[in-house]
From TrEMBL:
It is an enzyme of class 2 (transferase). Monomer. Its EC number is 2.7.7.7. The keyword Transferase applies. Transmembrane segments: none annotated. This is DNA polymerase IV. It comes from the Bacteria. GO terms for biological process: DNA repair; DNA-templated DNA replication; error-prone translesion synthesis; SOS response.
Length: 376
């Protein structure tokens, strides 16, 4: 049986994953009492709109984020659509992160509403990682009038899975001696990165749970799941040695727009893409980065989607260069046979502006966790 290369395991970590409950929708319900208890969707309510977030009342009808608005309204005729207020969500997110910083500087944000925290160091003398998670949840409720769920475990994989276990407004703790049994009982679809297609493939192979996955050797997993094999092998054993990275590098900067009417001609597509390029470049400048890869995204009126990318030897230097590359990528798709409902442009392979792309120079040393300093 083939196994991945092994090395000395890292010191035992105490990781918390905090995930706000239906964050965007909950903020809207908090700020507008008339929305409380009602099914709410944040996003465009037009025929071309998409749900950005859904309240738990809406989720009961099967409404989910990224769902077309027409589908959401069909599932829940009484659904209330609210326009997103991202500046408000960002402000609340800053409040929440200020609470995190009372307990640790090792914070890895995943989005506005979730983050990993390494609390191996008990700098406030709380006494346990579970106690810290409880205090954080209590202070979030007290100071923002919102609820958060938490997962507490010895690695990031388990902490993230655990935070979803008792949602909403819950906590789940998976201690080192419980990890293997916890993972064994998980449905295979709960593993990070296992989408509907992969879950269906696993089912055909007789893999339904973490226990089933653990019986598969590495060769079998590589044959059927390629690059995901090592991750699946380790995760099925409750292993994940990734540290919390407080200086998590942003991987891409982009923008996209969904149009109320299909774009059918070159005369409508080119100016639309040019406007998106301007938005992306504003964000690139604000972030202080440059990127070497430009990706064009096109979604057609039948919801099929394509991407086209180009990587350069040097980072894109200005807005006009970005726009020109985007237009060149678009040229390869013209004329379009179907109406275009969405265009997007993304810059990736990012480095800091005015710096040399030296991987060694960009490495940030992380404090080594100290084993056993804080109990669960």
């Amino acid at each position: 049986m083939s196994e991945p290369a092994t090395s000395a395991p890292p010191p035992l970590r105490k990781i918390i994953h905090i995930d706000m409950d239906a964050f965007f929708a909950s903020v809207e319900q908090r700020d507008n009492p008339e929305l409380r208890g009602r099914p709410v969707a944040v996003g465009g309510g037009s025929a071309r709109g998409v749900v950005a977030a859904a309240s738990y009342e809406a989720r009961a009808f099967g409404v989910r984020s990224a769902m077309p608005s027409v589908t959401a309204r069909r599932r829940c005729p009484q659904l209330v659509f609210v326009k997103p207020r991202f500046e408000v969500y960002k402000a609340v997110s800053r409040q929440i992160h200020a609470i995190f910083r009372r307990y640790t500087d090792l914070i890895e944000p995943l989005s506005l509403d979730e983050a990993y925290l390494d609390v191996t160091e008990d700098r406030r003398g709380v006494g346990s990682a579970t106690g810290i998670a409880q205090l954080i949840r209590e202070q979030i409720r007290s100071e923002t009038h919102l609820t958060a769920s938490a997962g507490v475990s010895y690695n990031k994989f388990l902490a993230k899975i655990a935070s979803d276990q008792n949602k909403p407004d819950g906590i789940c703790v998976v201690r080192p001696e419980q990890g293997a049994a916890f993972v064994a009982a998980l449905p295979a679809r709960r593993f990070y990165g296992v989408g509907p297609r992969t879950a269906e493939k696993m089912s055909r192979l007789g893999i339904h749970t973490g226990a089933d996955l653990r019986t598969c050797d590495l060769d079998f997993l590589q044959q059927h799941f390629g690059k995901s094999a090592d991750y699946l092998y380790r995760a099925s054993r409750g292993e994940d040695h990734r540290p919390v990275k407080p200086d998590r590098v942003r991987k891409s900067i982009g923008a996209e727009r969904t149009y109320g009417e299909d774009l059918l001609t070159e005369e409508t597509l080119r100016p639309a893409l040019d406007a998106i390029a301007s938005t992306v470049w504003e964000r690139v400048e604000k972030h202080g980065s440059r990127g070497r890869t430009v990706t064009l995204k096109v979604k057609f009126n039948d919801f099929q989607q394509i991407t086209r990318a180009r990587s350069l030897e040097q980072p894109v230097g200005d807005r006009d260069s970005l726009a020109a590359i985007g237009q060149d990528l678009l040229s390869g798709e013209l004329p379009v046979a179907r109406g275009v409902r969405l265009l997007g442009l993304t810059v990736s392979s990012l480095i800091a502006a005015n710096t040399v792309a030296d991987p060694a120079a960009s490495h940030v040393a992380e404090p080594a966790p100290q084993q056993g300093k804080l109990p669960f």
